[in-house]
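Good morning N.,

You mentioned wanting to compare the apo and holo forms, so I went ahead and generated the holo version with zinc ion. This is what I fed in:
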Amino acid sequence: MKYAIGIDLGGTSVKGGLVNSQGEIIEQKSIPTISDSQENLKAINSLITDLRKDREIVGVGIGSPGSIDSENGKVLTIGGNLKDWTGIEIKEYVYKNHLDLEIKVENDANCAGLCEMWIGSGKGYKSAVGITLGTGLGGFLFLKNDLIRGDKYRGSELGHTILYPNGRQCNCGQMGCTERYVGGTGLEETYFEVSGIHKSGEEIISSVASDENAKKTIDRFTDDLATSLVTFKNFFDPAIIIIGGGVINSSHVWWDKMITKYQEKINSIDEMPIVKAKYLNSSGIIGAASLILNKNE
Ligand SMILES: [Zn+2]
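and this is what came out, ligand included:
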């Protein structure tokens, strides 16, 4: 059995896991993320040292937010709360401290996608569109058994396709991006628009039965998500669409309705499945490790 370490750098913590060639996490550790790039690099390094101990491992895969030059293991651009992360040469830094190991770096949503395609809901499919419903909307594209990264590693930004021309202002500078409507923050914004009151995503979900404005908000979210899936389906013609991320925990209030709306909106009904992701919390670690494990089979 081969082993690799998978690292998942998120907004709140750096998680690391020792993963075997069947995709099982043998041991896991995490360190809180802080807004200092050098400290975060040190955290990645110490997780690798801690998990490695005296074990034989083939390498380390690292998932990071942002546009990642996966050839050189470098962060090209990033938004959100890791602002000084742009330009960081992750691969070079880690390699200097672990000269005997193969190091690979990939975008975090792509890592989650690789996990789903390897041992999750996408197993056995050659192509997929994946979306991650968190605070925003992340995505991955998988065609002919490989990730689509784009010419400058900025592809598969499905959250920044435009859903409403001249709609809500997005952090990326555009207006009306899909993630301003479909995702945790979008849900809260919609609720505020219909009620004038601030409620958290969880409060909105839990009050659907009793609060008419919460019901309206979920109906809008469901309709917007269905519309987005129609766009992604027509654009990429995937064999399967996989939906993951924290918002999937509330799918009992919107999933069936969303599927019905999708079927009403799409121009051709075919057998393409729309499914939930199998791995929600550990997909980043497993997918990062797969960068190494699946290359060294
Ligand atoms: Zn945007």
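Residues 77 and 86 are 5 Å apart (CA to CA).

Happy to go through it together on a call whenever suits you.

Best,
F.
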